[in-house]
């Protein structure tokens, strides 16, 4: 597992796609092994994972929309997503 710092940048792994499911009215994460329905927090983080934005930048961007966003929380979400093998570090 990668050590995630504030300057780390994540992106969706090859073959993984985040899309909005109109039927469920939520985001779904499609990957070769199946489908994952992320909660709103995880979806907000995933939308910003472009391989360029760092954890610090993602935290700042989310802080504009939501109150009380902490870098540790973003790191925890990304760690769980890495464990599920849907994000990778650039």
From TrEMBL:
Self-association and partners: Monomer. Interacts with PqqE.
Gene3D superfamilies in the record: Coenzyme PQQ synthesis protein D (PqqD) (1.10.10.1150)
Organism of derivation: Kibdelosporangium philippinense
Pathways per UniProt: Cofactor biosynthesis; pyrroloquinoline quinone biosynthesis
Keyword flag Protein transport: no
Name of protein: Pyrroloquinoline quinone biosynthesis peptide chaperone PqqD
Residue spans crossing the bilayer: none
Keywords per UniProt: PQQ biosynthesis
InterPro entries: PQQD, PqqD_bac, PqqD_sf
């Amino acid at each position: 597992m990668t050590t995630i710092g504030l300057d780390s940048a994540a992106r969706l792994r090859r073959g993984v796609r985040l899309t909005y499911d109109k039927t469920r009215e939520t985001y779904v994460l499609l990957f070769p092994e199946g489908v994952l329905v992320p909660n709103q927090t995880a979806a907000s983080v995933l939308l910003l994972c472009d391989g360029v934005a760092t954890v610090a930048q993602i935290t700042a961007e989310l802080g504009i929309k939501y109150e009380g966003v902490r870098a540790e929380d973003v790191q925890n979400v990304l760690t769980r997503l890495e464990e599920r093998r849907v994000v990778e570090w650039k």
